[in-house]
Amino acid sequence: MALKEVARLDEIEEGGMKHIEAADREILLANVGGRIYAIDDRCGHMSAPLSMGKLAGKIVECPLHGARYDVTTGRCVRTAQMQGLEAKILAVTKYGRLVDAIRTYRRDTFKVVVEEGVIKLDLPAK
Q1: pTM here?
Q2: Tell me, what DSSP letter sits at residue 64?
């Protein structure tokens, strides 16, 4: 593993998020209570970018189907939720059975080091 500079601390306000790409990965940086966390930026359900979702405390919600992840651990705390007309259509189609079979998996997290206002991640070497 090698530390890689990925952003500056002042780029992410408290309660904010930032999408970055490093080591061939899409990563979400989240500022929770002044501490930076790094997690895979793609939802473990249907690969939507989590950085386009909402962060509430340490929980990020996927903008597509509402799956929720703890940015401090990567654990899925709520699986994807089909809503409204979409849920009704899916309930009576083969596609609906397929969507029901899709699991929502936890996300990888990355060790974060902040030195002199610079955010560094411990990323796998290429």
Answers
A1: 0.85
A2: T
Strands 25-32, 35-40: parallel, antiparallel or unpaired by DSSP?
A: antiparallel
Residue reference for tokens 């790094």: 38
What angle (nearest 5°) sits at the alpha carbon of residue 68, between those of residues 75 and 73?
25
Backbone angles phi, psi at 71, to 5 degrees: -70, -15
Residue 68 and residue 35: Cα distance in Å, rounded?
19
Tens of pLDDT, residue by residue over 13-67, are 999 999 999 989 999 999 999 999 999 999 988 889 999 999 999 999 999 888 9
In 3D space, the residue among 71, 57, 56 whose CA is nearest the CA of residue 107 turns out to be 71
The one-letter code for the residue type at 7 is A
CA distance 94 to 85: 16
Inter-residue long-range contacts of 9-15, CB under 8 Å, 24+ positions, other chains counted: 9/36, 9/114, 9/117, 9/118, 9/119, 10/117, 12/36, 12/119, 15/55
8 A C-beta contact, residue 44 and residue 105: yes
Q: What percent of the chain has pLDDT over 70?
A: 81
CATH class of 2-123: mainly beta
Instruction: Name the amino acid, one letter, at 104.
Output: T
